[in-house]
Amino acid sequence: MNTDAIGAVGHSQGAIGSLNAMIASHGAIKTAVTIELPLQLSCLPGLCADTRRLDQGSVFFVNGAADSIVSPSTQPGQANGLQSNQAYYDATPATITKARATLNGANHNDVQGQPDCATASVPCGTGVYGYLGYPTAWLLDQLGNDARAHSVFVAGTGELFDETSTWSNQYSNITG
Questions:
Q1: pLDDT tens digits, one per residue of 2-28
Q2: Strand order in the sheet with 29-35
Q3: 6-11 and 29-35 as β-strands: parallel, antiparallel, unpaired?
Q4: How far apart are CA 121 and CA 104, in angstroms?
Q5: How far is residue 41's CA from residue 70's CA, in Å, rounded to a whole number?
Q6: Closest listed residue to residue 62, CA positions, set 161, 148, 170, 143
Q7: Nearest Cα to Cα of residue 105 among 136, 128, 135
Q8: Is the omega angle on the peptide bond into residue 115 within 30 degrees of 0, that is, cis?
Q9: Among 71, 76, 173, 175, which residue's CB has the most CB atoms within a 10 Å radius?
Q10: Is residue 78 scored above 70 in pLDDT?
């Protein structure tokens, strides 16, 4: 095991845990992939992740378009705190390598599909397949220095930005 290449991946409350673990790791955790990161309104006080506290590493924020209540893509009007994938991304310091994207059609528990929704918690619409490629590429890039995987996330020109039928709300501060 390469202890210099540790990443954390989490779904829902686990996404909060992956960010909090990265913040508390003092650099040991190099990257996080958050899937369906919940609204801060649904967190227990003091347990919410605050991406403004990140001072190292990288994060890929992923949510599903059909999950508009627990993990919406954009910030609801007049909401206080971080209440959307966009808000978490925007609050993350510009010095942190970051990307975000919304998987079209996916609901909150699709990532639990094995591969479909037969054994997943409700709500699940399509299953896990949509979540497999880009989170894996993110980990290959951030932990394995894979040049091909890195090119996927280059702002505006990477493969992720061409996937408009499958993905939307793609943003990245990766320039090359």
A1: 899 999 999 999 999 999 999 999 999
A2: 6-11, 29-35, 58-64, 97-103, 167-172
A3: parallel
A4: 19
A5: 9
A6: 170
A7: 128
A8: yes
A9: 71
A10: no
Q: What is the pLDDT of residue 41?
A: 84
Structure tokens at 131: 């979540």
d(CA 28, CA 3): 8
Query: What do you get for the CA distance between the two ends of the chain, in Å?
Result: 28
What are the φ and ψ backbone dihedral angles of 80, each rounded to 5 degrees?
-95, 140
SS (H, E, C) 45-112: CCCCCCHHHCCCCEEEEEEECCCCCCCCCCCCCCCCCCCCHHHHHHHCCCCCEEEEEEECCCCCCHHH
- Reading the block at residue 168, the tokens are 């939307």
Largest CA distance in the chain: 46
